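Late entry, evening session. Most of the bench is empty. Finally got around to the prediction I had been postponing all week. Sequence below, unchanged from the version circulated by S.P.
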Amino acid sequence: MKHPTIALIRPWTLLPLAAALALSLSACGGGGGGSVGSLTGTPTAGKATLSGTAIDAPIAGASITITAGAPLNDTGATTAGTITAGSNGQFTITVALPAGNVPIFANAVDPTNPGVILSSYLGSSSALIAAGTLTTSNLPDLDISPVSTAALAVYAQTNGGSYAGLTPTTYASTLQTYRSDILAIAAAIKAVGDNLCTPSPVPASTTNLAAQIAANSNLTSGNSTTLSTAATTLGGNCPTVFASLPQEMAADPDFAPELDLGDVIDAGIQSVTAGTYQLQGVIAETGITSASSTPTKPNPASVFTDSTITVDASGNVTSSDGYVKGTLVGNLINLSVMDGAQSYSLRGKIGSIPTALVTGGQSYSIQSGGTNTATQTLTNFEAVLAPAGAAPVWNGIAAPANASSRDGVSCTAGFPVRLDAFGDVIGGGSVGECITPNATGWTMSGSVSTDSAFNFDDIASPTSPTTPPSLTAPTWIEVSSAASPFILTDSSASFSRNGVTTPGTTYYVMGTQAVVFARTNGNNLLSLHDTRLTRLSEMATNDGGDSSSQQQQDH
């Protein structure tokens, strides 16, 4: 397919080129994860052997195609090799890769529904050949999924339809800058692939669907309304079942890691320095279970703290009180967390926070999804791993004067931010705000949602927006009981839409890209678009990069 040309507004580069080699291999189906298990090759020969599995429940007989230059069926794609997966979705394929820095893609087609086509970026041909053996011990999260498919559609749309400049760095920047848009498009792919609704008309393929939504969402302007565009594009009965899907996917342990940063591909690289730490986080159940689409009443959002964490040189994560244990491979972290009587299994990405925002040692932000092990309720866990005695400096990065963002938010003071709302009660819509940090927290302006970009994307009637939503949470302070200064909260917050005001409590964990809005009977996520306060590195240290070269625009 040929993508329309749109001018690029280039975001600040997040990661070193050795990072973020690939993301996801989960076809649509019933949960679970997938992997391309190994990659071996001789650099001088230009050949590589890939072994892996197409899973999301296993896709028996999945058609696996490795392409160079572009994803399957896209302009500029050449086929490097194809194979049919076995009954468990497993495959092994040897391919001859072209010389140079040609982007390489893995693609999966569901044989029982050929319209379900998923693609993932694997990195450049030269890097794949030179890397040698890649297994789950040094590339733990290589998957093909609706998220990776959506991310590639967004990348193409914001780069004039060309993949020529695609690198691990620019791919990771796309994930960070367009996280909410990618979530909305991925939700549309999942809705079609999992037969959650009946679209009208039925899209020719999920890749065409993703490209169409990206093209019609004006991603690089101040009028991006991706969630409502996705609902309109799907049509049929899809809009009524669509609003909660992005929140569900952001909490899914397979999809959540694909939304943040990338994967370290060098054997032995660890993105956290071995040592002792404190863990401060917010556990927020969604009310959606991994086994059923029927919502349940979630446990209230809770602040979790543990000051007895140790990370060793092998990436083992333990706590002396026994409440936390896990493993860290590259920047993929798996955790088991006991919070009172509740137990959670979590999977996500960890990145280092800019040192300007912390005193007392390098600290790390975790953004993950998982399940309550008893109820299987999908759960978000946003957290900070910080050395004992470390403290946040919320105003460590100065807000630019008269700043504006690509989302159409302008601020005479503070950072312009866009918060995208997902889930029941608050539905799907966007709120513009100006956040002004002080040493120990934030103040937030009244919602600046006067731009048409922030009209409520009413998923039930996406072509007829009503009143814009608004978030009232003027004073965000550090959580004091138990002391969790890396978490900000406002207990008197409220979210209004269509004339209905819902009271709640907001939480924000330093470095993450989601605000938790906790109400009496549930928890919602407000996805925070990229700002200078959320820019992480997957390497063990983060000096924040060359801030002097950053534009006044945050996007």
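Two things to note before I forget:
The helical segments are 125-131, 146-157, 168-177, 179-193, 206-216, 226-234, 239-242, 245-251.
DSSP finds eight helices and 28 strands in the chain.
Will write this up properly tomorrow.
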